[in-house]
Amino acid sequence: MNVQEIIEQSTSVIIDVRTPEEFERGHVTSSINIPLKELFERVEEIKSFNAPIVLCCLIGGRSEQARCYLNGRGIECYNGGGWMDVDGLVRRCA
Known about the structure:
The chain is of the alpha/beta class. Helices cover 46% and strands 18% of the residues.
């Protein structure tokens, strides 16, 4: 399954792993901000979403780090890359 298919399901959760300051400058409307440095202490919260997770950041590097970490903890998640790309997918699927 690819990121577009996950977003089309509309049951996915979009997590932006950028800093709060970056998030405030622009983000996917439906996304939540969990900065990469907080990810490690919020694993149980993320598990509670019980939905496929699409991760995004500025260009995809931090979201890939987050994907690797969360996949290693048994959480289904996908690297959406840059938040503007994910935003475009969300807008097309709306």
